[in-house]
Structure formats: structure tokens, C-alpha cells
Design brief:
about 300 residues
Amino acid sequence: MENPDGAMATPRSPLGSRRTLGAELRRLRTRSGLTLDDVAARMTCSTSKISRLENGKGIPKIPDVRELIRIYGVTSESERETLLRLVHDGRERGWWEPLRDALPHDLVVDLTVRHAALESEALRVSAFEIVFVHGLLQTPDYTRAVLYAGGGARTEEEFERLLELRRRRQEALLRPDSPMLFVLVLDESVLHREVGSPSVMADQLDHLSDMAQRPNVSIRILPFSTGVRGGHGGPFGVMEFPPGSGSDIVYLEGHSGLAHLDAPSDVEHYRAMFGDLLVASRPQDVSKAEIDRFRDIHRARAKDRSA
């Protein structure tokens, strides 16, 4: 969420510090009446460097930010100290970086790790899934089945690192202080689809039923009877961030990994699309009953196969 009042959020990670710093640098540049080109000319650097800093994508350097502080005419000592502290914090290693270092640096992995870092800073995530249970709610056995199905030629060690990354992502829902708010619309097909085995599915749906009772988690089932909706083009989600920590972000899932969009028009488009899916989905209590019904179906199948 953008923050016109200028109050800075308290980041939870180095990426959060970079995004908060970037949002503040953008606010200061706008207040100064300068364009990206103006600032780049004064810094004798490319406009893309300034843009990356403002979007939280570049690793900030103290000399650069000191010069931007001078250009923007920041005179408050406390404001200067806050900006430089964000630079320092933004240069630290995040919890996800040791896991990324242990994995091949291909595009899918890099996008997955960046997504995990962004997700850990989100105040709220609204997501629609049409194939699998969302990663934030997957059990380890379900995650293994999903990773093995689409993981290609990865080693067992790489699968374990990806599994650990998935587990660490889920901690955002369980934080004792300000847990992430998570609203999930799940296409009914996900309840039918057997992933791993009937036993894995039964345990997964049992976990969904338990998580649906948490005050910060809402799970809604989109029934087949609603027909085709605009959101059926593919899984997507909207990540909302605290005021002052950068723009909200849409993510789209595909075979080549995740794509992130932060243009306001894209965010509003997908937010409206999610609203349509939410209205068409079953109420939370009815959805939980449906999850429990399919859990029992998969459990019965597991017993039949083991007989």
C-alpha cells in the first residue's frame, strides 16, 4: 500500500527494508518535484538504477543514499538516520538466502525465492488456486508430491531445500505478532484431484480444515456450479503490504514460474477479479463442511486401497 502521509512501516526482513527505503526515496523525490531522469543526471548514473532503488530491487549503498538525501534536501537528523538504518538493514542477508545459495540459480528458483521474501512482508494475501492447494497451506507430503510432479531433474537435496523454503513461508501465518491475513478461494477441482495418494489428500484436507479455523485464515470453495469465471485463466494472488512499505503486488503462476506485477492498474484489475470469485464462492462454514466431506472420501479410498 502506498502511504501519502509518509509514515514508514517497520520491516520484517532485508527485502522489507529495501522496499520501505525505496518507497521513502520515491516520496522524497516526488516532494522535490524531480523526475527519475533529473535524479539520474545529478547522480551521473542510469535512470534504471534509481528506479530499482525505488522499487526495492537494488541492494542499497550508503554513498548513493547519502547523495540522494543531499539532492532531496533532507535536513532532519532523525530522518537521515532512519534512511541510513534502512540501508544497513537492507544489506543484511534474509532467511531465504542460505536456501537460495544451496539451489541452482535458474529462473524458476530465483522467482520462487523472491516470492517467498515478498510474501513474508505481506500484511494480507488474497489468492485463487485451480490446480493445487496453495503453498502456504500445504502439508509436507503434499508438497513433495507437487514438487516431484513438476521438479524435472532436481536432486533429492534440492527437493529438500525447496520443501524447507515452503515450510518457512508458512511461518507467516503462525506469527504470534501480527500474523499474515490469508484469504484463499479454492476451485472445487482441487478437492477432487488426488495428489500423492488418497492418504496424502486426506491428511492435506484435514490440515486445511484445521487452518480454516484460525482467525487470520479464510478458505472458500468455488463450486463447479458457478461455471467459468474470469479468474479461471490461471492461479493468481494479490499481496498487500503495510502503508509506507511499497506498492501492492499481483503474482501469476505458470509453467515457467511466477510473474510479479506492481502497476496500479494491474493490481486493481486482479483485486476486482478476486472479489468476483469471492462473491461466487461458498460461505466459509459451508466451504469447511465441503473440505471435511472430501477428506472423508479420500480417507475411505485410502482404506479401500490398503485392504
